[in-house]
Amino acid sequence: MMPFHTCGPNEVMVVSGCCLSKPLLVPGGRAFVWPVLQMIQKISLNTMTLQIQSDHVYTQLGVAISVTGIAQVKIQGQNKEMLEAACQQFLGKREEDIRRIAQETLEGHQRAIMGNMTVEEIYKDRKKFSRAVFEVASSDLVNMGISVVSYTLKDIKDEEGYLKALGKSRTAQVKRDARIGEAEARRDAGIKEAMAEEERMASRYLNDIEIAKAQRDYELKKASFDQEVLTKKAQAELAYDLQAAKTKQAIREESMQIKVIERGQQIQVQEQEIIRRERELDSTIRKPAEAEKFRLEKLAEANRNRVIFEAQAAAEAIQLKGEAEAFAVEAKAKAEAGQMVKKAEAWKEYQDAAVVDMVLEALPKVAAEIAAPLTHTKKLTMVSIGKGEIGAAKVTSEILQVMEKLPQVVNGLTGVNVSKAMKVSKAKV
Description:
- The chain has helices at 80-90, 95-115, 119-124, 126-141, 162-350, 352-375, 392-404, 406-414, 418-428; strands at 4-6, 11-17, 24-27, 30-32, 38-44, 48-58, 64-75, 146-157.
- The chain has 429 residues and is an alpha+beta fold.
- Strands 3-2-5 form a three-stranded antiparallel sheet, with helices on one face.
């Protein structure tokens, strides 16, 4: 057995038993029920249609009639107090038992209302009767948890022919009133017809007179109107031409104004376009050009400064180098001058011996200069004819031959006989 139970929106589950101080009411939903410990019951919330039949009931004046009413009742599931009352009254009962109890209650109230009203009141004012039954029955059934949804009076009848007699009397009265009304209507119609004919003839004559007057007035008015119409027509035509001219002038003025506005708009557009192009020129050409110009100016200035600094540095370097070289030349000149002085003093003292010494010092240098070309020679091929020296001795002998001719060259250039000077010096020694 499942612990969960469900019910539709037209039912109410009533759970009672262990752990519950009072029954749990669940209208249209689900509930958990402990098996064996708790019990679940259901009660229907469906609307019940009841036919309330009250036969041979005496009304207020003692006339017996039978009334049939239709009532719609249901157990109220939205009001908790009414639902608890309905559970106390009808839980465990069948729907037929509930219908029977509600029907008997409504029938009793219907009979009570019939006894307090006359047949004419019930017959003529059915809404009043239905409202009285509905109000009295609702206040009683609410205590049982049942609400009356609606009540209507379906039928009224009697066995004595009272209602039929009321109908005949009313029918006869209506027929009598109809015949009287018809005769009075015919009389009134004849009188009114004669009066109407008299009035018609008088009206006719008066109408003829009025027609003649109206015709005369019409002709006069027509002539006057024709004159006014022609005058107005001419004025209208002239006014039309004048208005047309004014309208055309206004249209031309408006057209010119529109053209002026359009021209003004075009000028504004052109001015905006010029401004846009100037801004575009500034952003695309002028600004980059100015930036490039600024960059080139800065580069030129930097280059100029670099050249100036380099020139200044070079000038300072040249100046320092020149000063150093001048100092070196001066020192060298001073040294050479001192040396020359010493040499001059030595030459003055030793004369030929000094010359000889100088010649001897210069001979190795001269020999080196003579042999210098041979140091750059990678390959030397010598051809011998079979006479004299060969090989390296030949090269050495040729160098010595060149050196032997030096005294002659010096004598020819300077007039100093080196050989003689050396001989004199040797003799003195």
